[in-house]
TrEMBL record:
Homology family: Belongs to the SusD family.
Subcellular location: Cell outer membrane
Protein name per the record: RagB/SusD family nutrient uptake outer membrane protein
UniProt KW Oxidoreductase keyword: no
Species: Bacteroides vicugnae
Keywords in alphabetical order: Cell outer membrane, Membrane, Signal
Length: 507
């Protein structure tokens, strides 16, 4: 494992997509490290290569969005490729040491491999700082790299770390900050959080000065051709507001009183940036954008995404339940509360889900990443994009962390109303922070947390965020979990054996 983690992949450009216009240099492959960083174009190639490496089915174009993480969250009724004799048993998805050993290890090693690339980049961005003579390049590049390092470590922590609210002092993961072969100790979850916040705070300070925020730019902008194309389309880069959103995420996760206040503050800063992001407040067949592109704070663009989806059981034309992630009609109705408050919620509409009514059953297929819809009728609608941070989460963080029940409910209702839920079905604060004893799903959580959870499930279907929320709040059960009771062992992916063998981290 360590041989994989600590060896820098030579920067290999994987091809450009329609959303990658900020790259204005030709792709290069197999460039020696020293020579790579002798020019601005070499730095640009290296940073762009890091972003492109995120867009694989092992990471954010598959397992960490619509595939494995959402299987863990119980969103599907089947797992194509794991349905022995056409029978799928949900509990197998937590078999981290056998059935899903190779998948888990691949996620771990691939993410640390990218972190190695980031650490090498950060070493050279300071060593060869004098090469970066174009205005904004040094601060923007270093800020992005630090933000990406924090982003990746945070997701590793949320997968491989303990349930933080229960065991913040328990061992979690290494935090790699240098490009070398030295063993790195496995830190406690609390220590990892401190390291993440350090990177994010430094990134914020750099990007405050350097981030070209006015370059959240559509190609139809009259000034587009005059701008530096490496700095445009900031929604596909770890921009200043993406870093602020990450700070909101991490402080919310940390969860103490001071951190909840900081999480609320940072989330509100992002919400206030309405010049760059805005909530969709209606959806019709003529303007539907299933990934809500205008809400994207940070995401990636994936080369030939349509073909990748076909190869990974998300073919938008396929309705074969043995060859596709799907959920049955009963689950769909429960998740979207179709018989109750979800009756007018457009997140369940046909542009988002395809419902197949059969003679004996109803099956539902997610169409969130349907590239035909994202290309139809207007420019730059999010084709080939995978959103990794979107605006509604900032409202949910306010809802979770605000000390006032009314402020919390207001934030939650803002998103619900924008999604078409009736004003008459607003969430009220009666018993808001009491145990939700009327819940048929989980009576061990407060009404506040259960209502936020239900919103994550509706809003972030196929985006991989629900499992993190369930784990953070140590849900003992949830619809679709397939177990009588969840334990910390189910929530915490096991570290690869080689992490201990090669890293001397067993003590």
């Amino acid at each position: 494992m360590k041989q994989i983690i600590y060896i820098l992949l030579t920067t290999t450009m994987l091809g450009l997509t329609s959303c990658s216009d900020w790259l204005d240099v030709s792709p290069k492959t197999s460039i020696p490290t020293e020579k790579q960083f002798e020019s601005e174009s070499g730095f640009k190639d290296a940073l762009t290569g890091i972003y492109l490496k995120l867009g694989t089915t092992t990471l954010y174009a598959g397992d960490l969005t619509y595939a494995y993480l959402d299987e863990l969250a119980g969103l599907y009724s089947d797992y194509p490729g794991y349905n022995t004799n056409a029978v799928f048993e949900q509990s197998i998805v937590f078999d981290y040491e056998n059935m899903f050993l190779s998948k888990k290890n691949a996620i771990y090693s691939t993410m640390y491999n990218i972190i190695a690339n980031i650490n090498n980049f950060l070493e050279y961005v300071d060593r060869n700082k004098d090469v970066l003579v174009t205005e904004r390049y040094y601060g923007t590049m270093k800020g992005e790299a630090l933000g990406l390092r924090a982003f990746l470590h945070f997701d590793l922590l949320r997968m491989f770390g303990p349930v933080y609210k229960e065991h913040p002092a328990s061992k979690a993961i290494p935090y790699r900050t240098a490009f070398n072969k030295d063993a790195t100790p496995v830190l406690s979850a609390g220590e990892v959080v401190i390291a993440i916040l350090k990177d994010l705070n430094e990134a914020e300070e750099l990007l405050k000065e350097s981030d070209p925020l006015d370059f959240f730019t559509n190609q139809t902008d009259e000034e587009y051709g005059e701008k530096n194309h490496f700095l445009v389309n900031r929604e596909f880069r770890m921009n200043l507001y993406a870093v602020k959103a990450m700070l909101a995420r991490v402080y919310c996760y940390k969860g103490d009183v001071e951190s909840r206040g900081l999480a609320t503050e940072y989330a509100k800063q992002v919400i206030a940036a309405s010049k760059y992001f805005t909530l969709y407040k209606s959806q019709t067949a003529s303007n539907y954008n299933s990934i809500r592109y205008a809400e994207q704070i940070f995401g990636i663009t994936v080369n030939e995404f349509s073909n990748l989806l076909i190869e990974n059981y998300m073919d938008m034309e396929n309705t074969n339940t043995q060859q596709h992630f799907y959920l049955d009609g009963d689950k769909f109705s429960l998740f979207y509360e179709t018989a109750d408050v979800g009756n007018t919620d457009w997140r369940k509409n046909t542009e988002m889900f395809q419902v197949i009514n059969g003679a004996s059953s109803t099956n539902v297929f997610c169409r969130k990443y349907n590239q035909k819809n994202l290309n139809a009728g207007y420019t730059y609608s999010g084709a080939d994009a995978v959103p990794l941070i979107r605006l509604p989460e900032m409202y949910y963080i306010v809802a979770e962390c605000a000390s006032s029940a009314s402020e919390s409910a207001d934030a939650l209702n803002t998103v619900r109303f924008a999604r078409g839920i009736s004003y008459s079905d607003e969430i009220l604060t009666t018993g808001y922070d009491d145990l939700d004893i009327i819940s048929e799903e989980n009576k061990d959580q407060t009404k506040r947390i259960n209502e936020i959870m239900k919103e994550y499930r509706k809003e972030y279907f196929a985006e991989g965020q629900l499992f993190y929320f369930l784990k953070a709040h140590n849900y003992s059960t949830y619809y679709g979990c397939g177990l009588e009771a969840m334990t910390e062992a189910h929530y915490q992916m096991t570290l690869p054996d080689d992490e201990y063998i090669f890293g001397n981290n067993s003590k």
